[in-house]
């Protein structure tokens, strides 16, 4: 039993009858009824409220998690009220990242519904004088099929509330599921979004609300030396200019410091910021310069580095190989650039703080606010709005801390609004990576050795000052866990020191590992004159469950799962490759004179994804992604419609990475500030068609939010090679002028 | 004092005439359906109509809207059932949804001017509206669907 499972079951005992609990505390306070646990409330009138404890950022979590509970409860989903949880430990982990909401909480949420169902069934069974085991629930009714009787939830809820919740609820068999796995779950927030009524981070209205715009230190590690606020304060509407404390490394989620201009409205605050005069202390990070850093990284991967995994004698086998193939790959820093830049509203009063924030991580927001204000985390209430995109950025609540600090200082509610320039310049950047891959062939052309070196300033540096090597969890993303059916394998990680805040961005280190591995396999195929698909399948090897011993590691983080529960299963990997190549007509691709086809595969977050991309040249000679096929196996998928939308979106997200996006640094400062410099795919870039196939099976649920991203960029680069013969080993392609 | 007509309702406002229309809508009038995404007319999240034309309200000084008819997402239809809004919901267009008000306003202006847009027309008109979630294919399909349905007698 996992820890979260145990905590969850314990929490069931806290919550019988009318005891007030949950993010619904306020809403439920006036109603009696059944609250079998923190996720479910059934009012005396039968109205079912389900708490969504994760943040909605476009992945459809508010349309998905309540469906799991409603299914087990037997509620009518169209009548269910969904209540967004505030940050609280009683919900278990609420950090909405790692494609984990269903993957990590599926069983918990099913049990939350099942407990309610069993209590309703028991109450109805007593009324009818039948065995509760012969009762079921559906559509808001308890049914006794043998006697064709039914009772609405409203008719039994008061009696059910007097019962003790069962400690080991039984779950509905899969054939009784109505919502889990349905292709047509309703999109809860769709109508509100389409009418402009949906409330995002910046849309919170409070009486007397002031708006703050920040002036952060331009270089990480520098601090405010002096400033003159007189011109800013002279602007109509500007109320305060306030200096924030300087953070100390490791930076974690601390606010960046600098100055805040607090005004009656956003425009005044922006104008005030422009009028500030500030000088900053020097920082070693001012030496950060992207092209020289790239050269250093290239040096690093040309020498032996720390071993991530090892099997056989790769160095020796490469030394004695009849022929060798080698290549180096580079990827730049990326910015998350969610469409809504970071924003949060806070109101500190009477020793408490209430926050309204677009955050993926309400519990960490409580901690950051506590650190910024001196309050206890339990005195911080974090309300979660819709996110306006997250992609990992909004797991880091530095901006929430800013709002709370300013509200406490001023004694009024304050909204912090980062501008787009703040967002891109002061992001927790996706790392910048260099990889060197080498393969050795024996005299018969057989693949006998594989050496893969990678270096990237790690996320570890955010938590441990000076850390230059990836933590185990970072290296498990495509480096340690990729099946290689090759007798001699060695994967190494070289040091790269961070000069900016490094953070996780949608699919994280899988972005670079998938790029290096898939591009290199395509190069191997070309060098050996074999079909890239055959080459990919040869490297992965036959259908099997890969052991730690075969991987050449002592343990594998495996995204938080036991290997027995979530194995490295090559059969499922081969399955999506076969599926996607069949969809795309891979075997017949050479008959397509106009287009080049590229293939890539990657497994991440317990989902295997394979992609074929067809590119062509536009009239102007630029590369255009014309058509994309994607096959994914994420095990049991609760909300198939949203999973498909995630995969479609992942293709565009990956296209931005492949074609346009990069953040470069000069004198420690990001050179891209807005969407003119930091370019993203736009509608004319969107392929004519994206064909998505999501496997239907009952394997344990995997993630779907991130796994579509990693194979996109290598598939595009491989397709460009197929079309033009030009081998590009660095993205974005805009650098090479081909898009 | 500035005279503004927004979604058919006249307003009299004491604001800096240089304040962008976006911030007048959001901060002064509390109409938060129109979004801030970039402040430089690069993303289209702030798109509204002035006299039926799609404009980026983040770079439009409010004085330029004076004595003209401004329409924001809140006024695109009286009850949220503009054919595009219906198509958006039916086809599951939004992901995070933040850009969608701007996408809808741009699309509505396009269909008004050009009820039968070609795929290229749609791509060109919407090229200024970023969607970081990458819902472009569904946005495109939803516009096409509305245009196709309008064609039928």
Largest interface: A-B, 65 and 57 residues
- What's the shape of chain B? globular
- For the record, the CATH class of the largest domain in chain B is Alpha Beta
Whole-number count of domains of chain B: 2
Helix count of chain B equals 5
What is the fold named in CATH at topology level of the largest domain in chain A?
Aldehyde Oxidoreductase, domain 4
Would you identify the CATH architecture of the largest domain in chain B? Roll
Helix content of chain B: 25-40%
| Chain-averaged pLDDT of chain B | 97
Q: Unreliable runs of chain A, pLDDT <50, ≥5 residues?
A: 1-30
Rounded mean pLDDT score of chain A: 95
CATH class of the largest domain in chain A: Alpha Beta
Q: State the distance separating the first and last CA atoms of chain A.
A: 51 Å
- The CATH homologous superfamily of the largest domain in chain B is termed Beta-grasp domain
Task: State the end-to-end distance of chain B.
Answer: 47 Å
Strand tally of chain B: 5
Helix/strand order of chain B, N-terminal first: EEHEEEHHHH
Q: Globular, elongated, flat, extended or rod-shaped: what is the shape of chain A?
A: globular
What is the third-level CATH name, the topology of the largest domain in chain B? Ubiquitin-like (UB roll)
Question: How are the SSEs placed, and which strands pair?
Answer:
The complex is a heterodimer of chains A (739) and B (153).
Chain A: H1 3-12, H2 25-28, E1 33-37, E2 40-43, E3 48-52, H3 61-73, E4 81-84, H4 101-128, E5 135-138, E6 141-144, E7 149-152, H5 153-161, H6 190-194, E8 210-215, E9 224-228, H7 230-233, E10 238-244, E11 258-263, H8 266-275, E12 277-280, H9 290-300, E13 306-311, H10 314-319, E14 323-331, E15 343-349, E16 352-357, H11 362-373, E17 380-384, H12 398-410, E18 414-417, H13 420-425, E19 433-441, E20 447-455, H14 460-463, H15 472-475, E21 488-494, H16 510-528, H17 532-540, E22 545-546, H18 548-551, E23 568-569, H19 570-584, E24 596-604, E25 607-617, E26 623-633, H20 640-659, E27 665-666, E28 669-670, E29 689-694, H21 712-724
Parallel strand pairs in A: 3-4, 8-18, 16-17, 20-21, 26-29
Antiparallel strand pairs in A: 1-2, 2-3, 5-6, 6-7, 8-11, 9-12, 10-11, 13-21, 14-19, 15-16, 15-18, 19-20, 22-23, 24-25, 25-26, 27-28
Chain B: E1 2-6, E2 9-13, H1 21-28, E3 47-50, E4 53-56, E5 69-71, H2 83-90, H3 100-113, H4 119-126, H5 136-151
Parallel strand pairs in B: 1-5
Antiparallel strand pairs in B: 1-2, 3-4, 3-5
